[in-house]
Amino acid sequence: MPAAAWATLIIAALIIGITAVGLLRVILHLWHVSKTLATLSGGVEVIAASTATVPTVVASVNTNLKPVRDFCEGV
Known about the structure:
Elements: H1 3-50, H2 55-64, H3 66-74
C-alpha cells in the first residue's frame, strides 16, 4: 500500500477520533445540564408549594373567627 494511502487512513482516523471525543464531551455536558435542571425544577416546585396562596385556609379561619366577629359587632 502506498504511503499516501496510509497517510490518508491515519488522518481520517484522527479526524474521526477527535470528532468522537468532541461529541462525547457534548453528551456529557448535556447530561450534566439535564441533571441540574431536574434538581432546579424540584426546588422550584417546593418553593411554589411553600408560597401557595391561602384561599384554601381562609374559609376555615373565617369560620373559627365568627364568634369574635359576632362579639365585635355586639360591642
